[in-house]
Design a protein that fits this description.
6-stranded mixed sheet; 4-stranded antiparallel sheet; binds zinc ion
Length: 454
C-alpha cells in the first residue's frame, strides 16, 4: 500500500480542485435543479479516473453506473453513493456561499461536501490511485451512484431489480453518515427501517363553539385516547404483534454494542437534555439506539394554537407517527398491525395515510468482510475502528442485503458535527484524505481476503 498511499499524498491538491468543481455543480433533487448536469460531471470524473461509465435514466434522476472489471474470478465490490444534495436554505445562516466550497478550520464548507459527494469521490480516487500505480486493480469494482437519495430513493429498488446481473457482486460498501463523536472511525453494519403514518380523526364538518362539548365528540380527546392505546406507561409499544418479528440479538451484536464508547455528560450536552428516557444511563444509550424499535409522535395537531384564547371544538385531530423498525420487522406488516389495532380499539373511522416505508437491514458482525473493513480503516485512518452492529438512522441497505443478497458495510468519513442537511455543512479534510487511503486499502484487503496476496 505504501506506493499507493504516496501517490494519494502527492495528489491532495488535484483531488481538492476536482472535488470543488463537483461540489459547485448544484444537484438539488427535490426541485430538479442541476441534477442531470451533475450526473454528467460525475460520469466524466469517473471516466477520467479509468472507470467505464453509463448514465441510466430513471423516472426522475439518473443513476451513474461505473465498473472496472479486471477478471471474473476476482471478488467484486459494489460502491453505492448519491450525488444529489439537500436544498441549502435558510441561505442567511450560511457563513459562505453554499455552492462555493471554501476551506476553513481544516474543513471544506459546501452543500453536499459530506453528504455525499466527497465521501463517494474517495472511492473513485482510490481506484484511480491503484490504476496509476499498479496498472490494474486486484478486485473488480462497480459503482452505483444515484441522484434521488435525498428524496427517499424512489427509483433505487426498481433499478436494482431491473439490473441484478449488472450489479452482481460479493459485497456492498459505501461511505455516508459520520464517524464516532470521539473522532475514531466506525463501521456501520445495519440501519433501522421505517413505517411513517399520519392518522386523522374527524367529527363535525367545521370547527364548533366549545359549548357543544356537552353533546358532540371532540376528536382531539379521541386522539388522546387513541394514542394512549399505542404505548403502556412503561413505554412498551402495545400495538398487537408489533414485536412479533423482532429478531433475537446474538451475543456478538450485544458485545459489539457494549464496546461503543459513550460518555453520559457529553451525550446529554450534545442533545441539550438533563436526563435520558426512563432514567437510562450512558451504557444503555447505544444499545437502545441500535436495537430498540420505536413508535414516535413526530407531530400532533388539533384546534386553536394561536396567541390568546379561543373557545373552540375542533373538527379534526391529526398525528404523525414514525416507527423505526429493527430486523426482521416489515413496514407493510406493521402498518396492517396498526390498522387492526385501531379497529379493535374503536377507531375504525381513523383515516390512515402512510408515507415512508423502509425495510430494516443488518449485516452479521462476524462476516469476514467486516474484518476487511476494519483492516482498511486501521491503515487508512491509523486508528482503531469502532464496530456498530447498527445505527438509529434509516438508509436503503436492504436493497443490497435483501434484494442483491450481499453484506453491506458502511464506512463513514465525515465528522459527527458535519451538519449535513443544515446550513454550513462541512467535510473534514482529514476524513477526506484518510477516506481516500481507506477506500484504497479496502481494495487491497478484499483481494487479500480472497487469497490474492498469499
Ligand atoms: Zn442526506
Amino acid at each position: 500500500m505504501k506506493k499507493i498511499f504516496d501517490y494519494i499524498e502527492a495528489h491532495h491538491d488535484a483531488y481538492l480542485e476536482e472535488l470543488f468543481t463537483f461540489l459547485r455543480c448544484k444537484s438539488i433533487s427535490t426541485r430538479d435543479e442541476g441534477v442531470e448536469e451533475c450526473a454528467q460531471m460525475l460520469s466524466d470524473i469517473m471516466e477520467k479516473s479509468g472507470i467505464s461509465t453509463t448514465i441510466y435514466p430513471t423516472s426522475r434522476h439518473p443513476v451513474v453506473y461505473g465498473e472496472r472489471i479486471e477478471n471474473e474470478d476476482l471478488p467484486t465490490m459494489l460502491i453505492y453513493g448519491h450525488y444529489d444534495v439537500q436544498p441549502p436554505e435558510p441561505l442567511e445562516e450560511w457563513n459562505s456561499d453554499p455552492f462555493e466550497p471554501v476551506i476553513r478550520d481544516g474543513r471544506i464548507f459546501c452543500r453536499g461536501a459530506s453528504d455525499n459527494k466527497a465521501q463517494l469521490y474517495t472511492h473513485v480516487k482510490a481506484a484511480e490511485a491503484w490504476l496509476q500505480v499498479e496498472g490494474k486493480l486486484p478486485v473488480n469494482v462497480k459503482y452505483l451512484f444515484e441522484g434521488e437519495e435525498e428524496i427517499g430513493s424512489p427509483d433505487l429498488l426498481p433499478f436494482v431489480e431491473e439490473h441484478k446481473d449488472l450489479l452482481k457482486c460479493d459485497v456492498c460498501f459505501y461511505s455516508d453518515s459520520h464517524y464516532h463523536e470521539n473522532g475514531r472511525p466506525q463501521i456501520n453494519l445495519g440501519v433501522k427501517g421505517l413505517c411513517y403514518v399520519e392518522i386523522t380523526l374527524r367529527e363535525a364538518e367545521t370547527d364548533l363553539h366549545s359549548m357543544m362539548a356537552t353533546c358532540i365528540q371532540n376528536p382531539a380527546w379521541r386522539m388522546v385516547q387513541l394514542l394512549s392505546t399505542l404505548k403502556d406507561p412503561k413505554g412498551n409499544i402495545t400495538i398487537d404483534g408489533f414485536y412479533d418479528d423482532v429478531r433475537p440479538l446474538n451475543k456478538l451484536e450485544i458485545e459489539a454494542a457494549g464496546r461503543i464508547p459513550s460518555d453520559e455528560e457529553t451525550l446529554k450536552s450534545q442533545y441539550g437534555v438533563k436526563r435520558f428516557l426512563k432514567g437510562r444511563r450512558s451504557d444503555d444509550f447505544y444499545y437502545n439506539l441500535i436495537f430498540e424499535p420505536t413508535c414516535n409522535i413526530a407531530g400532533l395537531y388539533a384546534g386553536f394554537t394561536g396567541d390568546g384564547s379561543k373557545t373552540v371544538l375542533p373538527k379534526k385531530a391529526s398525528v404523525k407517527i414514525d416507527m423505526r423498525l429493527v430486523p426482521d420487522q416489515k413496514p407493510e406488516k406493521i402498518l396492517e398491525a396498526l390498522k387492526d389495532h385501531l379497529c379493535r380499539h374503536g377507531f375504525s373511522d381513523a383515516e390512515i395515510r402512510h408515507y415512508g416505508m423502509v425495510t430494516p437491514s443488518r449485516t452479521p458482525v462476524d462476516h469476514p468482510y467486516v474484518k476487511v473493513a476494519e483492516e482498511a480503516l486501521r491503515e487508512g485512518f491509523l486508528q482503531e475502528p469502532i464496530v456498530f452492529p447498527g445505527i438509529g438512522g434509516v438508509a436503503p441497505d436492504y436493497v443490497f442485503t435483501g434484494h442483491l443478497g450481499v453484506p453491506t458495510i458502511v464506512i463513514p468519513y465525515a465528522a459527527a458535527d458535519q451538519k449535513n442537511h443544515a446550513p454550513n455543512e462541512s467535510m473534514v479534510l482529514d476524513g477526506f484524505f484518510h477516506g481516500i487511503r481507506t477506500s484504497a486499502a479496502l481494495v487491497y484487503h478484499l483481494a487479500k481476503e480472497a487469497g490474492e496476496y498469499e
